[in-house]
Predict the structure.
Amino acid sequence: MMMMQRPQLQDVQQAASMLLGHVHRTPMLTSRTLDQLAGNRVACKSEHLQRSGAFKFRGAYHALLRLGEVSRSPRVLTQSSGNHAQALALAGRLLGFEVHVVMPRESPQVKREATASHGAHLYWCDAHPADRLRVLDQVKEKTAATYVAPYDDPHIIAGAGTVALEMLEQDPDLDVLVIPVGGGGLLGGMAMAAKSLKPTIKVYGAEPSGADDAHRSLLAGKPLPMPEPDTIADGLLTSLGEWTWPLIQHYVDHIFTVPDHAIVEAMRLLWGRMKQVVEPSGAVALAVALSHAFKARHAGERIGLVLSGGNVDLGFLAHDKQS
C-alpha cells in the first residue's frame, strides 16, 4: 500500500481521479464582512461540508481504494481522536471493510457517536500517546487488521492534497493558502500540490499556540514533537509525522499560531455571519487570517482558507477556553 517515495503532484492528481463522484466538490464561500475584518479578499473552502463532516474522508476513501488493489484483507485499524475515525468508518462501510478504531476516552461525543454509527468497532484508550500505542498493539494482534494511519501515509496525504487542486480550479487567482496543521497530512499534501501547480503562491500553516510543534519545527529545521498539547482544537493535537514533515519543510512558507480565544472568535464569526457550523480545528485558518501578524504581511490579496471540519459538540460554547 505504501509508496516508496514522497508523494508527488501526479499522485494527488491520480487520487482526484479516483475520488471523482465519491467525495463532495465543496464550495468556496465568501463574505464581505470577513473581507473587511481581514483586510484581504477571503475565500473559504468548506470542507466542513464534506462527507463525514471533514476533509479526512478524501484520504480515508483513497487509502482504502488503494488497499483494495493490493490486499484482500477485510479489516483495517486506526487510531484517531475523531475526524479520521469517522471518515475511515464511513469509507469502510461503503467499500466493504471491517473497521476497528482506537479512540481516546476524551474524544468529543459527537465524533464517538458518528464513528460508531458507521459500524466501526471502538476501543478506548487514555489521551497519552503511549497508551494509544498499547491499545493499538492489542487490537492489531487480536484482529490481524491492516493499519491505516490518520495522516502519516502517502495515500492519505495524496487524498488530502486534492483540496488544493479544487481550490485552484475554483479560484485560480488565489495569492495565499492558509491551512490548519495537526499531523500535517492536509498541510503537506496541499502545499506540495499547490506549489507544484502555482510556484508563486504562498502557503501557510495555521496552528493553535497550545499545540505549536509544527511552528517550532519549521523554525528549528527539525521535528520537535509536542508532548502535552493543550488547545480547544482537538483535531490538531498530533505532532508531525515522518511522511508529512519533509513536505512541510520543503513547501510551506511559514506557520502562524493563534490562541484559543482567537479560534473561538473565528468560530463565532463563521457561525453568526456566514451560518456555517465549523469546529475549532476548522476555524483556526480564519483566526490566522484575522490576526495582526498575518495582516502585517498581506493586504488586499486573495486569500484561500480551509475550513477543515464541522463536527462540533455544541455544548462546548458554554465554557469557552481563554488563553
